[in-house]
Design a protein that fits this description.
It is a multi-pass membrane protein. With about 425 residues, this protein is mostly helical. The protein has helices spanning about 1-15, 25-35, 60-70, 75-100, 105-120, 120-125, 130-150, 155-170, 175-185, 190-220, 225-235, 240-250, 255-270, 275-285, 290-305, 325, 330-360, 365-385, 395-420; strands spanning about 15, 320.
Amino acid sequence: MLALLARLYYVETVVIDGPIRGDAAAYFSYASNLAEHGVFSSARPGSDEPLVPDSYRDPGYPLLVSTLMRLLGGEAWYPLLLQLQAVLGAATVGLALALGRRWMATRWLAAAGILMALWPHSIAITSYFLTETLAGFLSVLWLWLLVTFGRSWRGGLLAGLVAGTAGLVSAVLLPAATVVAVLLWITGKAGRGAAVALLLGSLLLPVAWAVRGMQIEQAGTVTSTSSGRASQNLIQGSWPEYHDSWRACIYGDPGACEVQKRINDEIALLHATPAAGLRGALSRMQADPLKYARWYATKPYLLWDWSIRIGQGDVFVSPATASAYRTNAFYRASSAIAYALNPWLFFLAAAFCFGVALRWRLVVPDAVALAAFLLYVTGVYWVFQSEPRYSIPFRSLELIAAVGALMAASSSLQARRRDETL
């Protein structure tokens, strides 16, 4: 209830300057074309661009938005979308609490719940026309379904279907269920039937979408496909200068714009001739290996850092001309506390994941699934583009893991003290 009230108040009072911009503009185009023409296309509505199907973006979020557009028409769909995202964000908190309920003590679970309910990124993102809230809800939902009903193949299949749906909202999540299923099977935390059902269920919808995507790729260009987007993110993520030069170029810095041009040229070469593009990127890294070693060593922390790079900064993707995080004392105080805690929570969550990896025989399947998922997400963004906005869907899971590490440390300390007094 706290999470729901915090999000509903925020979306009802925030004012976003130009909410349909950047990625949001692309999702709006897809949703409008779906609602009006039944075609999944990035062509700008009302323009002279040909209405050609493509697969550059993932279909899940535009499908949700187009459904609201068809049901309500006009502009009534937009405030309802924000309210729906507030509800989904609050439901994510509840599901994450349920995910930790079987292995966390009540007081520690309550502390994690308060953090999740009031975490600024998770609240602010509900006011944007972006996929993060839906992706986070579906991710936590399928993990909860897995640990609750996953002992049978039916439960594994259901969890897999939801995991596949999450993958259609964010392609980064497509292999997540496969990774979790394999690890649970190898560690003996799930039976073979449940693991196989999870794997197969997670592939049903994405495979159908991939078949459609292959047809699009044969008719279109690589830049309009999901594989083209993945290769673009691979190159962008290999440049330490990408985020700073992107922002500086917007404000007219010629040096930064030159860096952006070099990045885009490298992407274009990779799209035109993949082998030559990869050789170019590797040659750049080999020219200064220490620089890129440092860069890739910092990318996991960058993912879970505070300020959004490709956007306005702080917890804002697009500028907010009115926001509770600037005018409301409660929101400002909670944001200041979260900002101070953020680095510590990252290292605690990392300690939890590696602790589970080292002592997997002694921990419950729920904790193994949570650690596997967090390590998978961090690993994917370590390879591709890494920035704090991309971790927002998974902040609730990070907070559960961080508080879980604190609980384990507290229990260990108490046990040691008891041993010393005997």
